[in-house]
Every structure is written in C-alpha cells, then in structure tokens.
Design brief:
The protein is mainly alpha-helical. The protein contains 6 helices and no strands. Helix content is about 60%, strand content about 0%. It is elongated.
C-alpha cells in the first residue's frame, strides 16, 4: 500500500548528495532519539532545506511550465514537511541544521548560474538522483528506525515525487508546453 502525506512527501530530498550530507548540528544533552534517528533527522532537514532552495531557483530560472509546477509543489511540500520534522525533532531533543549541507549549497550555487534549458536539464537530473537517494534513506528509516515518531514520519513520505520527476522529460522545448 502506498502511503502518501502531501505535507511530508519529498520530505527532504537533497540535491544529489543526500547520502553523503552530514551537516553539523549541535546535539542537546537531553536527546531522546537514537544515534540513527538523530542522523536521519539531520540529513532529512538539510536535504529539505536544499530542496526548497533549488525549487525556488527553478521557479525563477526554468523555461518550462512543468518544471515550475514541480518546483512549486516541492516548495509547498517541503515547507510543510520541515515544520512537521521540526516538531518531532523538538520532542526528541534533536537540534536540526538551519540550512542545507555544504555539498548541497555548492549544487545550489552552480544551479544559480544557469537559466532556461540548461537549468532545466541540470535541475531535473539532480532531482532524479536526489529522490532516488531519499527513497532509500526514508525506506531504511521507516523499516528499521528505532524512534517511533521518526519511523512513522519516514513511512509517510516520498515515492510520489520520485515518480513525478522520473516521468519528466529532460529535453522538452518551452514552446511545446501548454500553460
């Protein structure tokens, strides 16, 4: 059965480097979460911040309506998911990073220099990679996570965005898209 909660869908899909992103976050002494739970929440939060930053760029730099529609959905879903994760992290005593990882920031900076078709192609390719990595991260957490709130959060997330970005063609011409 496919579980999907729009508020958490894509919840934290980083741009291409999710698996290696380990942003620094101060941990509080009263942490209730396991080490793996803390790691998951930290990666998910940083990835979500990267997703929002990259999607905001897509809204400005893309030449395609389908890419802009996808980006708008990413901003909405990731903002809601970030709020949900922040609430869980607070109750678990996990301090989340305030932004994207250094590697994700580098990707965002390189995207910022592009416009039009070049932007669209790099954004779509990055989203495909990031969503595949996120599905793996969230699936692992949902199946073997020790922290019940984080486990439920992970189980209610993803898949839909991966399907959306995988179906999106890389080279569609802007003039062939109907608004």
């Amino acid at each position: 059965m496919r579980l999907f909660v729009p508020a958490a869908t894509a919840a934290f899909v980083a741009f291409a480097t999710l698996a290696q992103a380990q942003p620094a976050a101060a941990s509080t002494p009263a942490t209730k979460a396991s080490s793996a739970g803390h790691s998951f929440a930290t990666k998910a939060a940083a990835a979500g911040a990267a997703e929002i930053a990259d999607a905001q760029l897509a809204l400005r730099n893309s030449s395609r309506q389908d890419v802009k529609n996808f980006a708008r959905r990413m901003v909405d879903d990731h903002t809601k998911a970030a709020d949900q994760l922040k609430s869980i992290a607070t109750s678990e005593g996990i301090a989340l990073p305030s932004g994207e990882s250094a590697a994700d920031k580098k990707n965002t900076d390189s995207l910022q220099k592009l416009n039009g078709a070049a932007f669209d192609q790099k954004y779509i390719q990055g989203q495909r990679t990031a969503h595949k990595e996120a599905v793996s991260l969230f699936t692992t957490q949902s199946k073997s996570g020790e922290d019940s709130e984080l486990k439920v959060f992970a189980a209610q997330t993803l898949q839909d965005h991966l399907k959306m970005i995988t179906a999106m063609p890389l080279g569609q011409k802007p003039s062939s898209i109907t608004p």
